[in-house]
Amino acid sequence: MYVRPKKHLGQHFLKDKSIAARIVELLSGHGGYRYVLELGPGTGVLTEFLVQREEHELFLIEVDKESIVYLKGHYPALKEKIIEGDFLKLSLDSLLNQPFALIGNFPYNISSQIFFKVLDYRDQVPEIVCMLQKEVAQRIASPPGNRDYGILSVLLQAYFDIEYKFSVPPNVFQPPPKVQSGVIRLRRNNVAKLDCNEVLFRQIVKAGFNQRRKMLRNALKPLDPPPELIEDSILDKRAEQLSVADFVSLTQRMEAGRNG
Ligand code: SAH
Question: How confident is the model at residue 260 (pLDDT cuts 50, 70, 90)?
Fold first, then answer.
């Protein structure tokens, strides 16, 4: 049986089993989870290695009906573990109600949305191993001070330790994507809550990077910085120059001005 690759679902099936094995090996058990959720198993190239890990209980979520039929045929034992649906619409806490690792060769067209969802559920997801478009993977793992560093880098690095693991060329996929791919691992850090108003933190990060070439003084104008902060030299900087800790301290001072 054959699954016809569907572009609108971001389907590029990995053909190289040794790369699949290397990706699955990156699951380290960090945080002590039992459940593993595979996002977008497709024709099961990662699944084949995931089922060998007896220490874990595997669940799969796949939106493509044709892939689901294929998976049920190849992995009858997993029949009850395959969730048919859209990851972005899934209520993860009612589904698993326990910490779980997330793994997958993500559909590249929705990878940012996947990560915003992961951020919402960050206390339930101690580890994520995934393949993405290489630029996006690099951006997420990027340190401050360069052009790759952006909104998702800051928001994810606030709660996860992130490692760029390896790159994957297009020719090991069917069909080959137009872009290079990269594999990253994210592991939840021990920050339960940032030392500032987290809603305001997110607003500041977004506003700063939405006009990333401007000084923060201008980029943050819509958020109305308090007068005592306007003259501060931190606002001479651009968003990409600030570490997570810098954004936390900036948020504290924005807030202090508002409450005072
Ligand atoms: N893991 C497979 C397939 C990767 S392609 C491999 O490595 O070969 C991405 C997969 O994600 C496809 O199977 C696609 O159908 C699935 N997918 C796309 N959007 C999805 C969504 N919103 N929720 C769940 N799965 C999705």
Answer: low
